[in-house]
Amino acid sequence: MALSRGGMAAPLPLLLPRRLAAGAEPPANVVRVPWALRLRLQRGAQRRRRGQKEAAAAAAQPGKLLLRSRRPELSQPRWQTVGRWERPQLVSAGWKHRKACGDYFQLEPSQEAAPALQLGTPGALRAALRRRFLALGRLRWMVLDEADALMDDSFSEALEEILAHAPLAAGAPGPAGPGEARTQVVVVGATFPAGLSQTLGKFTDVGRFVILATQSLHRLPPHVQQKFVRLKGRDKLPELLQLLKERPASGGAVLVFCNSASTVNWLGYILDDHKIKHLRLQGQMSAAARAGIFASFQKGDVSVLVCTDLASRGLDTGSVQLVVNYDFPDTLQDYLHRVGRVGRVGSKAPGAVVSFVTHRWDVDLVRKIETAARKRTGLPGMDSSINKPPPKGG
Questions:
Q1: What is 331-365 written as a DSSP string?
Q2: I need a surface site. Which of 174, 189, 282, 351 has the fewest CB within 10 A?
């Protein structure tokens, strides 16, 4: 292979054999390069030159990054998008090794501001229908908010019973009698599991639904900064304490997400020891207690809320400017909903998200998030059920 003065592989000339006299030996300095090899070398050189040009262009635009890495060579400029079939060089590629602890990257906001609001109780509604405190015969509108959560095992049975009481089916009489308009159904959600259409199809003609989907469905919010920090488990607590203590009083409210009620309670005791005022919200509390706690948080009495994924859906968190994933979520759906707690419509600031990455199965999800960010595509597998996280390990 011939090398140019700069070390680059230069295209080799194709040397064809000349007709030799009988018995003559070919010259020793002739190198015959197959045509296919020559083309492959030329294409490789072109790719390297293109990569150098892109790197130079990226260096000429400091600060305008889509992904900022601790290692600058792995940063990605805002204008660059990884092709659909390309395999990007990920910051998180080696994060399953213990030597990766301390590494980090963050997704930089590509928009300057957030785009220019209620707890559902299907169980209580079902109880009222069973006791005949309520009748849906004249129901005109039904809104199914947080549609993916309604497909969870804890809600799906109640949802089907409620739908059975409403005049939805094509043959059923309308609210004002035969021939009148029947209940209009509106389904809303940031993610849509595959089973939702099957459930609704038992009661109404899903084919007649008008589907309105934003281009950002299942995509990471472009106006929210998202930082991922690879840590050992024992380093999570000091990292969180430093983050909370250094945060200015004017920095807005903070949500700290944990994956279990026991971790919420344990972390709360630690914050008490460090004189950090906070509230706790988790599913083992009564509904009345949860409502009171969140109302106090919304009023601004306390700016830090330690919670489970109970707080990731259906709550008005316009004052929240920082989300901390103390425990990395089990699914991409949960990650997307947690990120959606900041940068909401009407928020004063876009907000930021900091995620602690400690387990090998956490790294698997982080790689998918980083790849989707670099390619500017939606997160994969978002049509699966929210209550079926992938197997851990490996």
A1: SHHHHHHHHTTSS-TT-SS--EEEEEE-SHHHHHH
A2: 174
